[in-house]
């Protein structure tokens, strides 16, 4: 089912948790709400679920206006942050809960209910847990129970609030893939709240990056990486380092010494550049920034941390096919590209200057 | 020896002092009740309890508790559920009001009902014209007991309810449960031991209340005398054996309540509030 | 636009968890019927005497003596209970000795024992031929039962658990790290107790003092047996209320009740302010 949000606002006291959020999610889409803590992503999720009142704006789910519709009538499946399993019910009863509270006329018979629960247990691959209690389950198992419980009511929309937060890193990756596979099979429109960009990038069709109660950018993961539209997105997505500089006559010169200037089509004035580690290549040189740390990567190249003349550090990569870089060795930095934002918000992609262009 | 540890002799002294205080101030009064009750033997004590006026007092005490405790359980649960699971203006005021009876003298708790229902009370003449007896009768005993014991249930379950948060209730709401279903199937099972402890404490106070009940009772033997009031009457008539026998029965009620509370605390894995 | 203008009103009614209306209705009705309306009577009825009459009734020497006794004895008992309660809490939390579990359970006794039972028990103990009263009379010539001293002892019994039980969790949470840190920084044991432990316990001690005092000042059952109840000497204010009621002087009884309530709230407010000042002192 499609979700349309327009101009949504929600304040807690004087701080705006949501400050004019607009978002359109297509039917069957998997969308991630990505942002640092306090950016309003959980509040947005709670407003959609009907757990938090909307003060201004409009929410439409499957073509139906949602204002004033209580949570229990929305038919939205929610997987809560710490799963919120009913601690005094076993797994079976947790999953059956949504069916057992239906009005008598629509409530399935006991046998049907059991059949539906077993089907969900199979779907979430935990049939052996049927009689267990929440406090006997691991984090990953709890998450599957919470998901099965949410799916039991045949939700038209699935909301997941940091569903991997309580899992350790190894389980997280595996559960993530499984969840995306499940989504592809069921086709339920899904919104996921997360602060982990790797998670958002891997799972979602599109990612809405949130900043201070607003949506900074809503795009596919590839587009977010290739063309961030605000400095916030450029800094938050990927591992880009932020460096200050100044544009004059189409040339960006960095404040830090020891970095080559770049060509960029932006008006003259101060500017911020965002550099991914892969955009910064270190070549051996008799003098220049010092290599402080070198780490091997699975690709066989070295990831470096280099120290600039003023003491600041920058992530870089070693030149391909070069010798293994030595710690404390000097190097020359080559910058192959960067996202640059002028003070007025104008954006440009920077490229290396050809030598002839310098001076 | 640990740097922040006191010398052994000092620790022994502190422990001895604490035990002495406990013995003199806490254990001795309890011992006195049972000793005095049994001074002239089991038979005399038992006889004093089985005497008609004593039995009437026991019956009345049980009746008053049987009416007040369920009512205050419902009221206290409703208040605690509002405070812990919902946001509304005046929430903190409600917390203060729920605890208010604890800071009111028992005598005042009885007095307020005399001011309303007594012969010169607001409703006194109206009630008298219709021959409805409130003061010096069961209704006033129940009202005074309700006032005094109102906070117990709410105060015992509230901290647990707040600690458990609202996530499970919210999850139940998204799954389609209505308010009553959420309360009965999610909230209530989660607080059942604390609730039982609250009900026990409420009951102990209801049966043991003296001041508030004394003001509204009229002390009519065999009719409006509860057990604690009966202790007073017997005591003032110098029937010490009888007074202490009934007092010992009340003390037993207190001890059983204490024991049950500590068992419940162990089950629910936490402290479940104090009596006031 | 009109839709978004109409929204806030509808939005306010939306609650995450349903069922608030009914529960709130029950709670408010019950609270009003059982607590608030009756207290309103206490608030209004004294003024039937008129302001002058009210003042005259409250400044009667017998009333003043009773109020002075009730408040003086309650404050004194709560003050005496401070060190004793701290001692009990310290022993239960910090020390291991035979009988500790029993002592821990015994602290709750005054909570659980009906007040009339406590009253007759303390009287039996402290009367001139009781277990404690007899030796005190023989050795020192002290009389405790049927004097104001007896009242203080009864109120001490009532107030003691409030202080012990309020301090106990704070003492438990405090742990020993802070004390050990102070010791490694060269503080003597006494300096550590005075400058590290006591300030950390002070708010809880004040809270416990307030709770114990509030309970003691209105206490009736455990006092009247031991007090002797001599007008002007050992007659507490709650007893005077019941005497006024027996004389059908409702307004006079309500006046004493209201005065007690207001005075008690004034004391608790002062304690609250002291506590706030204490907290600010650290920040």
From TrEMBL, chain A:
Gene3D superfamilies for this protein: P-loop containing nucleotide triphosphate hydrolases (3.40.50.300)
InterPro entries given in the database record: AAA+_ATPase (IPR003593), ABC_SmlMolc_Importer (IPR050093), ABC_transporter-like_ATP-bd (IPR003439), ABC_transporter-like_CS (IPR017871), P-loop_NTPase (IPR027417)
Domain of life: Bacteria
Keywords from the named record: ATP-binding, Nucleotide-binding, Transport
Nucleotide-binding among keywords: yes
Pfam families recorded: ABC_tran
Residue stretches making up the ABC transporter domain: 3-237
MF-aspect GO terms: ATP binding
Protein name: ATP-binding cassette domain-containing protein
Organism this protein belongs to: Siccirubricoccus soli
UniProtKB/TrEMBL annotation, chain B:
Pfam families: BPD_transp_1 (PF00528)
Recorded topology in the membrane: Multi-pass membrane protein
This protein's UniProt keywords: Membrane, Sulfate transport, Transmembrane, Transmembrane helix, Transport
Subcellular compartments: Cell membrane
Main location group: membrane
Keyword Cell division among UniProt keywords: no
Keyword Nucleotidyltransferase found: no
CDD domains membership: TM_PBP2
Domain ABC transmembrane type-1: from-to ranges: 58-265
Gene3D superfamilies reported in the protein's UniProt record: MetI-like (1.10.3720.10)
Top-level division of the source organism's lineage: Bacteria
TM stretches of this protein: 56-81, 93-119, 131-154, 193-220, 240-260
General function of this protein: Part of the ABC transporter complex CysAWTP (TC 3.A.1.6.1) involved in sulfate/thiosulfate import. Probably responsible for the translocation of the substrate across the membrane.
PANTHER family: SULFATE TRANSPORT SYSTEM PERMEASE PROTEIN, SULFATE TRANSPORT SYSTEM PERMEASE PROTEIN CYSW
Quaternary state and interactors: The complex is composed of two ATP-binding proteins (CysA), two transmembrane proteins (CysT and CysW) and a solute-binding protein (CysP).
Protein name according to UniProt: Sulfate ABC transporter permease subunit CysW
Organism annotation: Siccirubricoccus soli
Lineage: Bacteria, Pseudomonadati, Pseudomonadota, Alphaproteobacteria, Acetobacterales
Gene giving rise to this polypeptide: cysW
UniProtKB/TrEMBL annotation, chain C:
Gene3D superfamilies on file: MetI-like
Keyword terms, alphabetized: Membrane, Sulfate transport, Transmembrane, Transmembrane helix, Transport
Keyword Cytoplasm: no
Keyword Coiled coil recorded: no
Pfam families: BPD_transp_1 (PF00528)
Superkingdom of source: Bacteria
Purpose of the protein: Part of the ABC transporter complex CysAWTP (TC 3.A.1.6.1) involved in sulfate/thiosulfate import. Probably responsible for the translocation of the substrate across the membrane.
NCBIfam families named among the record's database cross-references: 3a0106s02, permease_CysT
Subunit-level organization: The complex is composed of two ATP-binding proteins (CysA), two transmembrane proteins (CysT and CysW) and a solute-binding protein (CysP).
Family under the similarity heading: Belongs to the binding-protein-dependent transport system permease family. CysTW subfamily.
Designated name of the protein: Sulfate transport system permease protein CysT
Species per Swiss-Prot/TrEMBL record: Siccirubricoccus soli
Underlying gene: cysT
């Amino acid at each position: 089912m499609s979700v349309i949000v327009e101009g949504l606002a929600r304040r807690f006291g004087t701080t705006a948790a949501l400050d004019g959020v607009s978002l359109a999610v297509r039917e069957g889409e998997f969308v991630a709400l990505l942002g640092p803590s306090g950016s309003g992503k959980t509040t947005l999720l709670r407003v959609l679920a009907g757990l938090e009142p909307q003060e201004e704006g409009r929410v439409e789910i499957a073509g139906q206006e949602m204002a004033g519709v209580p949570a229990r009538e929305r038919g939205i499946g929610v997987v809560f942050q710490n799963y919120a399993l009913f601690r005094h019910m076993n797994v079976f009863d947790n999953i059956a809960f949504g069916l057992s509270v239906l009005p008598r006329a629509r409530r399935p018979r006991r046998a049907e209910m059991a059949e539906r629960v077993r089907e969900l247990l199979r779907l979430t691959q935990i049939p052996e847990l049927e009689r267990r209690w929440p406090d006997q389950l691991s984090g990953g198992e709890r998450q599957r129970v919470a998901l099965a419980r949410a799916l039991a009511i045949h939700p038209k929309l699935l909301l997941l609030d940091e569903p991997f937060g309580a899992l350790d890193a190894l389980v997280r990756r595996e559960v993530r893939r499984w969840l995306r596979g499940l989504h592809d099979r069921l086709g339920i429109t899904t919104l996921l709240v997360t602060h982990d960009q790797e998670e958002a990038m891997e799972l979602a069709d599109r990612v809405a990056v949130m900043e201070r109660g607003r949506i900074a950018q809503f795009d596919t993961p590839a587009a977010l990486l290739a063309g961030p539209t605000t400095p916030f997105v450029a800094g938050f997505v990927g591992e880009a380092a932020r460096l200050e500089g100044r544009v004059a006559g189409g040339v960006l010169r960095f404040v830090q010494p020891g970095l080559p200037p770049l060509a960029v089509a932006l008006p003259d004035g101060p500017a911020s550049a965002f550099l991914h580690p892969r955009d910064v290549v270190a070549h051996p040189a008799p003098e220049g920034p010092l290599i402080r740390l070198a780490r091997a990567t699975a690709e066989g190249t070295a990831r470096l941390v280099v120290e600039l003349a003023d003491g600041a550090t920058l992530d870089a990569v070693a030149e391909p096919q070069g010798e293994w870089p030595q710690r404390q060795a000097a190097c020359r930095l080559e910058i192959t590209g960067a996202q640059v934002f002028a003070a007025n918000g104008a954006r440009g992609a920077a490229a290396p200057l050809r030598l002839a262009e310098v001076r | 020896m640990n740097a922040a540890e006191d010398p052994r002799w000092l620790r022994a002294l502190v422990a001895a002092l604490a035990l002495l205080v406990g013995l003199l101030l806490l254990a001795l009064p309890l011992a006195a009740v049972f000793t005095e009750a049994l001074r002239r033997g089991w038979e005399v004590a038992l006889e004093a309890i089985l005497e008609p006026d004593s039995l009437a007092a026991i019956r009345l005490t049980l009746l008053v508790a049987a009416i007040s405790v369920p009512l205050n359980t419902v009221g206290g649960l409703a208040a605690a559920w509002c405070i812990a699971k919902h946001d509304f203006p005046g929430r903190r005021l409600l917390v203060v009001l729920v605890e208010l009876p604890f800071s009111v003298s028992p005598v005042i708790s009885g007095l307020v009902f005399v001011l309303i229902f007594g012969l010169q009370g607001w409703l006194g003449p109206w009630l008298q014209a219709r021959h409805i007896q409130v003061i010096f009768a069961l209704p006033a005993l129940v009202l005074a007991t309700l006032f005094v014991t109102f906070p117990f249930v709410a105060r015992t379950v509230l901290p647990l309810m707040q600690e458990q948060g609202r996530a499970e209730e919210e999850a139940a709401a998204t799954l389609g449960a209505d308010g009553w279903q959420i309360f009965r199937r999610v909230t209530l099972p989660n607080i059942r031991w604390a609730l039982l402890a609250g009900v026990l404490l409420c009951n102990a106070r209801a049966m043991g209340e003296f001041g508030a009940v004394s003001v509204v009772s009229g002390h009519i033997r065999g009719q409006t005398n509860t057990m604690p009031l009966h202790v007073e009457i017997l005591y003032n008539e110098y029937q010490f054996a009888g007074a202490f026998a009934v007092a010992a029965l009340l003390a037993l009620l207190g001890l059983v309540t204490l024991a049950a509370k500590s068992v419940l605390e162990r089950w629910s894995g936490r402290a479940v509030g104090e009596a006031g | 636009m009109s839709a978004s203008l109409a929204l806030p009103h509808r939005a306010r009614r939306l609650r995450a968890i349903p069922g608030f209306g009914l529960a709130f209705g029950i709670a408010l009705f019950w609270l009003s019927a059982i607590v608030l309306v009756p207290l309103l009577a206490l608030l209004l009825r004294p003024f039937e005497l008129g302001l002058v009459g009210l003042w005259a009734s409250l400044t009667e020497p017998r009333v003043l003596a009773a109020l002075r006794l009730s408040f003086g004895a309650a404050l004194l008992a709560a003050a005496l209970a401070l060190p004793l309660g701290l001692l009990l809490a310290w022993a239960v939390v910090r020390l291991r000795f035979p009988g500790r579990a029993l002592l821990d359970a015994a602290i709750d006794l005054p909570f659980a024992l009906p007040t009339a039972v406590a009253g007759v028990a303390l009287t039996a103990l402290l009367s001139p031929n009781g277990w404690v009263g007899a030796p005190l009379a023989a050795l020192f010539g002290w009389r405790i039962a049927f004097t104001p001293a007896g009242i203080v002892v009864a109120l001490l019994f009532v107030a003691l658990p409030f202080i012990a039980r309020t301090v106990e969790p704070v003492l438990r949470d405090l742990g020993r790290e802070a004390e050990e840190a102070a010791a490694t920084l060269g503080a003597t044991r006494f300096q550590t107790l005075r400058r590290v432990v006591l300030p950390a316990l002070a708010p809880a001690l004040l809270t416990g003092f307030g709770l114990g005092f509030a309970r003691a000042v209105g206490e009736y059952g455990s006092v009247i047996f031991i007090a002797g109840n001599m007008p002007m000497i050992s007659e507490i204010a709650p007893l005077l209320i019941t005497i006024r009621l027996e004389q059908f002087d409702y307004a006079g009884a309500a006046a004493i009740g209201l005065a007690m309530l207001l005075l008690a709230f004034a004391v608790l407010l002062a304690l609250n302010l002291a506590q706030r000042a204490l907290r600010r002192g650290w920040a």
